[in-house]
Amino acid sequence: MEERPLMSDTDGAESSVTAPPPVRRRGSWLTALLVLLAFAVGVVLTILALPKIQQWNAPQRQAALADPHGVASGMPMRPLSADAGQMLDARVMQLEERLNRITVEAQAASGNAARAEGLLVAFAARRALDSGAPLGYIEGQLRLRFGQAQPRAVATIINAAREPVTLADLRAGLTAVSDRVTVPPADASWWQALEHEAREIITIHKASTPSPRPQAALDRAIRYLDGSRVGAALAEVEQMPGRASADRWMQFARRYLEARRALDLIETAAILEPRQLRAADGGAVAQTSPLAP
Question: Residue 169: what pLDDT?
Answer without folding.
Answer: 94
